[in-house]
Amino acid sequence: MNEKLEKMKEEYMQIKASDTLKQRIDITINASKINTANTWKKVTGLVACLGIAFSLSLNLSPVFAATVADIPGMSEMVKALTFGRYVGERR
Fold first, then answer.
1. What is the chain's alpha carbon radius of gyration, rounded to the nearest angstrom?
2. What does the alpha-carbon distance between residue 91 and residue 87 come to, in Å, rounded to a whole number?
3. How many CB atoms lie within 10 A of CB 78?
4. Angstrom distance (rounded) from CA 38 to CA 33
5. pTM of the model
6. DSSP classification of residue 1
7. Alpha helix segments (H runs only) across 1-91
8. Backbone phi, then psi, for 44, in 5-degree steps?
9. Does residue 26 form part of some domain?
10. Alpha-carbon gap, residue 22 to 3, rounded angstroms
11. Does residue 70 fall inside a structural domain?
């Protein structure tokens, strides 16, 4: 069994690829790297937009800010992200 696999491996390794195939492989690999970079840019932009939307929601809606502040550990973040309008512990 091993001899058969070794023979098949030798035959496979002796196959020579054409230059156009090698160029096409290089182009595909480079395109994949570009797509990965673009994906990271999109994810970073999405996270930034979500952060801005959350901050705007806190500042535009005092009820939303109070509700989020009731979540354990979030009151300090609400105080930091609101621009002086948030009043905590109304109860």
1. 29
2. 11
3. 19
4. 9
5. 0.57
6. -
7. 2-13, 19-60, 62-69, 75-81
8. -65, -45
9. no
10. 30
11. yes
